[in-house]
């Protein structure tokens, strides 16, 4: 079965449409799972999936069908979903795209994985990412995608010569190509928002601490945050509702907040909403086609009754050096556990313990991960800790203060997600700094711990998607999703599908 009575192909339907079809028994969870499993096999050339198990997926789907049939259905029962390979899962390998964890099987599920399972989702498998979530293109991977004999980058469905963004590029490409209606992602410095923008889908990074990090293989602990990726803001609202929540026994940084149904107020009007426009997001370096589409999206918000307010985030430019001191410092600490002693990859030949450490980490980590570990170790070393790391922490606080000053004048902040549309595969490999600069508009919100999201806002001169970024104050996810949903009710960018998919 390729479509429900709504006539749209299943792989073009939203989470809302699919869950409605499932709960009204227009289609079974098994049929839906089989459809998406076939889609993922048909389009393996994209390199999105790195692990699948049809028997596990169909067993979960059968259980969902049984609950729907006996009247005990859960909110998302039968909905197929893919998990970024940064979350540990009992039923699938969890590798973080690294040779260091090749073939690793976790004895438990990440809290996010378990919460979504408890809501009824059916796991389609694990999707590719940059190694330990370090990258902006999904090119830094040591794990071969399904159907490949060697590691390969994920390809953007809109143009397979281009990157899908990173590090959640496998998630974004799978949704854009209709291989999954939704997926989990993680955002440390923009890794949900940027690939969502590059692939023409919607993604939200919640307030830091709103979603448990337990079972998320750590990159930078004070920055990492999980969030949903899907076609629409409504889809993200439905998913995020079942992802948030305190996890005090397993993640001390998770926050005690009451439960929230993010889909409840999506249709509220946004008349009078004040949207701040930072001048620093529209300076030199922003491609003309991105600027044009973002400005057109902002005019659409004015038609919807919002007011555009000029603001300033003066420390935007410093977010790159601040992030690339703090994040590598935390990575060097988090990744010290991968030494070849207790679990994971170990070098085959070594002379002594010191040599084992050296060879294991040299062979097990990819080039980008090694680069960030070296940077992090350097800035934490004696003589440089005060000069670099402590200074970066102080600037981080000032960046957060910039946002609080801005929110005295506005309710949300809007701008581009990235300076350009997706670049060609291999373009940024020669110069890591080019890669880092692509995150200039997403890093500030990450450093401040604020929620932010990307939604489709048009297409660039090369036909590739452009994303509009919305940033809210702490715990303003509902307001962000409401504003995004109203925009999507007035536009059709989120309904466009890449040719051939």
From TrEMBL:
Active site: 84, 167, 191
Gene Ontology terms: biological process: translation
Domain Amidase: 31-481
GO cellular component: glutamyl-tRNA(Gln) amidotransferase complex
TM region positions: none
Molecular function via GO: ATP binding; glutaminyl-tRNA synthase (glutamine-hydrolyzing) activity; transferase activity
InterPro entries for this protein: Amidase, Amidase_CS, Amidase_dom, AS_sf, GatA
Catalysed reactions, as listed in the record: L-glutamyl-tRNA(Gln) + L-glutamine + ATP + H2O = L-glutaminyl-tRNA(Gln) + L-glutamate + ADP + phosphate + H(+)
Alphabetically ordered keywords of this record: ATP-binding, Ligase, Nucleotide-binding, Protein biosynthesis, Transferase
Pfam family, one: Amidase
EC id: 6.3.5.7
ATP-binding listed as a keyword: yes
Keyword Lyase: no
Free-text function comment from the UniProt entry: Allows the formation of correctly charged Gln-tRNA(Gln) through the transamidation of misacylated Glu-tRNA(Gln) in organisms which lack glutaminyl-tRNA synthetase. The reaction takes place in the presence of glutamine and ATP through an activated gamma-phospho-Glu-tRNA(Gln).
UniProt subunit comment: Heterotrimer of A, B and C subunits.
Family statement drawn from the similarity comment of this UniProt entry: Belongs to the amidase family. GatA subfamily.
HAMAP family xrefs: GatA (MF_00120)
Record's protein name: Glutamyl-tRNA(Gln) amidotransferase subunit A
């Amino acid at each position: 079965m390729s479509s429900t009575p709504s006539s749209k192909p299943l792989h073009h339907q939203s989470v809302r449409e699919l869950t409605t079809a499932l709960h009204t028994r227009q289609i079974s969870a098994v049929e839906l799972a089989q459809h998406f499993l076939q889609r993922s096999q048909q389009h393996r050339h994209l390199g999105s999936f790195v692990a699948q198990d049809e028997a596990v997926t169909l067993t979960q789907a059968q259980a969902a069908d049984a609950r729907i049939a006996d009247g005990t259905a859960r909110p998302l029962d039968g909905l197929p979903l893919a998990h970024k390979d940064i979350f540990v899962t009992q039923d699938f390998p969890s590798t973080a795209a690294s040779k260091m964890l090749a073939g690793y099987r976790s004895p438990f599920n990440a809290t996010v994985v378990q919460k979504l399972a408890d809501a009824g989702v059916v796991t389609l498998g694990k999707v590719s990412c940059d190694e330990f979530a370090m990258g902006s293109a999904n090119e830094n991977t040591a794990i071969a995608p399904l159907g490949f004999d060697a590691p390969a980058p994920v390809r953007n469905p809109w143009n397979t010569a281009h990157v899908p963004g990173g590090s959640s590029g496998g998630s974004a490409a799978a949704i854009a190509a209709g291989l999954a209606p939704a997926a989990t992602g993680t955002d440390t410095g923009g890794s949900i928002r940027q690939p969502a923008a590059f692939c023409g889908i919607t993604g939200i990074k919640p307030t830091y601490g709103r979603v448990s990090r337990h079972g998320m293989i750590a990159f930078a602990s004070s920055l990492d945050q999980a969030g949903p990726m899907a076609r629409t803001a409504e889809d993200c609202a439905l998913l995020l509702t079942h992802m948030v929540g305190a996890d005090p026994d397993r993640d001390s940084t998770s926050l005690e907040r009451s439960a929230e149904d993010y889909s409840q107020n999506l249709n509220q009007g946004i008349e009078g909403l004040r949207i701040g426009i930072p001048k620093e997001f529209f300076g030199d370096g922003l491609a003309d086609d991105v600027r044009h589409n973002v400005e057109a999206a902002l005019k659409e918000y004015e038609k919807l009754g919002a007011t555009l307010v000029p603001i300033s985030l003066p420390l935007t430019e410093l977010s790159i050096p601040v992030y690339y001191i703090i994040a590598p410092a935390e990575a060097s600490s988090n990744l010290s556990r991968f030494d070849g002693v207790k679990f994971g990859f170990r070098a085959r030949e070594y002379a002594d313990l010191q040599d084992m450490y050296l060879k294991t980490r040299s062979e097990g980590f990819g080039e980008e991960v090694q680069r960030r570990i070296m940077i992090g170790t350097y800035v934490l070393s004696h003589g440089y800790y005060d000069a670099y790391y402590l200074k970066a922490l102080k600037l981080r606080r000032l960046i957060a203060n910039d946002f609080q000053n801005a929110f005295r004048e506005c309710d949300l902040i809007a701008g581009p997600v990235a300076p350009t549309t997706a670049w060609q595969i291999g373009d940024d490999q020669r110069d890591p700094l080019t890669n880092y600069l692509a995150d200039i508009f997403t890093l500030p919100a990450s450093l401040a711990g604020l929620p932010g999201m990307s939604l489709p806002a048009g297409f660039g001169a090369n036909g590739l998607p452009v994303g509009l970024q919305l940033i809210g104050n702490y715990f303003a996810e509902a307001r962000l999703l409401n504003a995004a949903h109203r925009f999507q009710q007035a536009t059709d960018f989120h309904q466009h599908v890449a040719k051939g998919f």
